[in-house]
Structure formats: C-alpha cells, structure tokens
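Lecture notes, unit on protein representations.

Consider one protein chain, 207 amino acids long.
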Amino acid sequence: MNPYSVYDYLTFIMPGTSVLFVAFYGWFGWPWAQPGASVLVGIIAAGFIAGNAVSALATWLEPMLLGGRPGSHPDGLWGQFAAGDRYADRKDEIEAVFKTRYGCSLNAAYRQAQTELRDLGKADGLDRINQQLGFYRGMAVAAVCSLIIEIVLDLAWHTHLPPGLWIPIFLVTTWLFAYRFRRFWRWYGDYVIRGVIQLSDAPAPKT
C-alpha cells in the first residue's frame, strides 16, 4: 500500500480543523493577534487528531450516506443497478461476468475484483477516487458536527458565529459534501465493473 500523500493528510486535517474552529471561535471569538508559526503547527496537529476522530465517526455513519443503517457494511455496488442507474438493465449480464471470473456471489466477487485490479497495477483510478471519498465523507460529517455545535452554543450560551448565516451554511455544505460522496461512490463501483469487463474481454459497457 502506498504511504499517505499530502491529500490523505488534508483529508484528516480539513474536517478536524473545521470542527475545532466552529467550537473554539463560536465560544471564544478571536480576540488575539495573528498566531505565530508554533501556534499554527499546534493548530494543524490538533486538527489532525480531531480529524481522525471525525474520520472514525464518519466511517460508522458512512452507510447513512447511501441510505443504510449506521455501522452496517455499505453496499459497494450501490448506485449501479437500481432504476435509472448506468447498469440498471445489465445486472444479470454483469453478474454472470463476475461469477465466471471469480466463482462466487456478485458482492463477494466485487471485493475480489478490487484486489485483482490492485495486484495487476490497474487501481490508480480507484485510489484517486478513494481519496475523494474519504475527503467528502469526512467533510460531510464535519459539517454535521459543526451544525450541532453551532446550535448547542446558540441555545445553551452564545455564539460568535451568527446562527442566521452559519446554520444554513452548514446545512447546505452537508448536502453538497454528501452529494459528492454519493457521486464518487458510483464512479468507484463503475470503475471496478469496467475493469473486470475489460479483463474478461467482454463487450464494452454502453454509456
């Protein structure tokens, strides 16, 4: 597995720093001068730690972004075979291709297909999409956490972030990040399906 890239670190730092900012600035404001380099390093480190906590929560909540129950195993093929999806009329054909190649159910074969594509060095696209998925998942949950913090601060004490502005912002950004997550999830599944079809010398899928 490749080591973390800068993008991978930002996937933790951005959500974590966003939540810390809303909690800290909402409660205290920012009456101090500009932070120095050492303080910025501390903020980044705190954001990374908080981002890992957000990531853990996001992993548990991830199935909800796909219409599932929190903590359940998300459907890797979500968005591929339902009415209106790209392969809505080709599920039987694609299932036969996967079963012929891997000899098991479609969901189990889908997981094996990811492993095979990586072993063959054909997973660069999957890795890039997976980075996007991690970012959008983390930011969607960070937006929800920020929304909750803002509401609690406003109701329980006070907030330096005007609720009339920031509550709608958090609601909209939650929806936008969730939408992008679902879109990239579809692309990920489509990439795997196309890769297996190419390996199996099957006809190219219709677009």
